[in-house]
Amino acid sequence: MVYAVWLFGISIAFVVAERIWPWRRQQGLLRAGLLSDILYIVFNSEYLGMIFAVVTARLLVLYNPEPLITLNLMSSKPYWLQFAILLPAFDFAQWAVHNALHRTPILWRFHKVHHSVVDMDWIGNWRFHWGEIVVYRAAMYVPTAILGFAPAVLFYYGILNTIIGHYAHANLRVSLGPLKYILNTPQMHIWHHNHPDCGPINKNFAITLSIWDWIFGTAYMPAKPPERLGFEGIETYPKNIAGQWLQPFLK
Ligand SMILES: [Zn+2]
Ligand SMILES: [Zn+2]
């Protein structure tokens, strides 16, 4: 089944679940910013990967006719073993990149797009600038090339990331009990998006696994959600996709 079909099914499931078990004030289905959110999900899920694949392939042909690293250490291993190694290795790398996106001023300009969500629901998972994917891809290139996972394993890792990404951003009061120490949850991730006026910042960098935040002391999870989301100056931040794409380059 192609990724777009999975994405559509997972998204519909979260639209329904948010209506059955909402946690905070519920947004209407037709709401402000919906067009931008739809453009983000379509572009970031379908076209961004394709554009990067084409550009990367061109660059490799131009500058690197023989691939630099083709060790493929994992590709002959059973799928379950590949998945068991891929999940913590890639998730930790992404957790570290997410830290850098917050702590490095030039990278924060790009990541601000994701933090411009003020009414969080599942689709907020897809609001991010294409520039931050350049950073993630660059950081992941060498480990991916060295380990060389099977495409099917990478695909199902992507599906798990999508499910947990939607869940962590969803306006859902469904919690995971003690599994919160392993997986990211809405109760945890909402405190990654809080406005600095109403709580500490630079907490809960988890992407799929929450264990890194618990281990490294960045977990923060009060029982109630924050009063307000965003960042300082969000009042004047562009509201549409074109303005948000341009914003990191303007100052
Ligand atoms: Zn962030
Ligand atoms: Zn988020």
Summary?
The chain contains nine helices and no strands. It has 251 residues and is an all-alpha fold. It has one domain (3-250).
Description:
- The chain has 251 residues and is mostly helical.
- The protein has one domain (3-250).
- It has helices spanning 3-20, 34-63, 79-103, 105-111, 130-147, 151-169, 186-189, 211-216, 241-250.
- Helix 3 packs across helix 6.
- The mean pLDDT is 89.
- Bound molecules: zinc ion (ZN) (2 copies).
- One zinc ion binds at residues 98, 102, 111, 114-115, 192.
Write the layout of secondary structure elements.
Blueprint: H1 3-20, H2 34-63, H3 79-103, H4 105-111, H5 130-147, H6 151-169, H7 186-189, H8 211-216, H9 241-250
The structure holds zinc ion (ZN) (2 copies).
Task: Throw out a few tags for this protein.
single chain, 251 residues, mainly alpha, 9 helices, 0% strand, binds zinc ion
* Number of separate strands: 0
**Over the alpha carbons, how many angstroms does the gyration radius reach?**
18 Å
In which range does the helix fraction lie? 40-55%
Mean residue pLDDT: 89
List the total number of helices.
Answer: 9
Q: Which residue ranges are poorly predicted, with pLDDT under 50 across at least 5 consecutive positions? A: none
Structural domain count: 1
Strand content: under 5%
What is the succession of H and E elements? HHHHHHHHH
The separation of the N and C termini measures: 43 Å
Attached small molecules: zinc ion
Pairing-aware structural class of the strands and helices?
mainly alpha
Overall shape: globular
Largest beta-sheet details:
none
